[in-house]
Write a structure and sequence with these properties.
- The protein is 32% helix and 28% strand.
- The protein is of the alpha/beta class and 256 residues long.
- It has one domain: P-loop containing nucleotide triphosphate hydrolases (Rossmann fold).
- The strands form two sheets. Strands 3, 4, 5, 6, 7, 8, 9, 10, 11 and 12 form a ten-stranded mixed beta sheet that branches. A two-stranded antiparallel sheet has the order 1-2.
- The longest helix has 17 residues.
- The structure holds adenosine-5'-diphosphate and magnesium ion (MG).
- The site of magnesium ion (MG) has 3 residues, from helix 2.
Length: 256
């Protein structure tokens, strides 16, 4: 396969330039950050850009409704309705509680963890996407609360399914605060970070003096070459996320 066919672009110009090649196809990428950093916007924008490249995208929401996500996209000028009509985009809201219950039922019926498959408890059968967004793994995890073992089985199945189908996935994970700043990466959801091929972190930045802003960093991308820098971002109405690849964070600041 020619090199360029092995990669996808997010279509966010200032971000794509941080990679030597791009997002490796068929891999699972975590989009991590605390609340309000722009994870959903990053994924909606990438989803729209991917559809514009003629690829099918499934956006699985466990938080906001279909209507509110579509409205959000249209507000930014990303023609979600058109992409849905063309059969390139599907936005569906799922209930995390239903999934947790189904997994529980399948597990107690089967008494054998290998018998549960995420196919039976998650994916629509009439749509064959090249890219999937899950917004968010955190919402799914909270429905499994107190049942870490079941969540772990579920997550392992999910990654296995995505890998088998060669689907490129953007998996949103909300963290209370950046998990690796000033130390090693901590994973409060068991195997997620280990199973993921890539981790992209989005930050809220508070500068000394109180000014606020945003930033993005590629923390990990297995086997790929990328710039290891944290750069400024802005979220603007009508354009969405803008990444400034030449503006590394400087001065005194705290990432939240
Ligand atoms: N139309 C808009 N114009 C400018 N900024 C926006 C707009 N919509 C949302 N935002 C900003 O984006 C942030 C939320 O992004 P979102 O992707 O929903 O966060 P997350 O999914 O990480 O919680 C908000 O904090 C807000 O500041
Ligand atoms: Mg969100």
């Amino acid at each position: 396969m020619p090199k360029k066919d092995k990669y996808l672009k997010t279509g966010i110009a200032g971000f794509d330039i941080l990679f030597e090649h791009g997002i490796p196809k068929g891999k699972a990428i975590l989009i991590e950050g605390s609340a309000g950093t722009g994870k959903t916007i990053f994924c909606l924008q990438t989803a729209y850009n991917t559809c514009r490249m003629g690829k099918k995208v499934l956006y699985m929401s466990f938080e906001e409704s279909e209507d509110s996500l579509i409205e959000h996209m249209e507000d930014f000028g990303w023609n979600a309705i058109e992409m849905q009509k063309r059969g390139l985009l599907r936005i569906t809201r799922f209930s995390a509680i239903d999934i947790a219950r189904s997994v529980e039922a399948l597990l107690s019926e089967a008494k054998k963890e290998l018998l549960i498959t995420t196919e039976t408890v998650l994916f629509p059968h009439d749509f064959d996407p090249e890219v999937i967004v899950i917004d968010s793994l955190t919402a799914i995890a909270s429905a499994f609360s107190g049942e870490d073992y079941r969540f772990r089985i579920y997550i392992e199945q999910l990654f296995r399914y995505l890998e088998k189908k060669k689907i490129t996935s953007y998996l949103i994970k909300e963290t209370p605060a950046p998990t690796h700043i000033g130390g090693v990466y901590k994973d409060e959801h068991g195997p997620i970070a280990f199973l993921a091929d890539g981790i992209i972190c989005i930050y809220n930045v508070v500068y000394t003096g109180g000014k606020r802003g945003g930033a993005i960093e590629i923390l990990k991308m297995r086997g790929e070459s990328f710039k290891k820098i944290t750069v400024k971002i802005e979220i603007k109405s009508k354009s969405g996320l803008i990444v400034y690849p030449n503006q590394e964070l400087k001065g005194n600041y705290v990432l939240t």
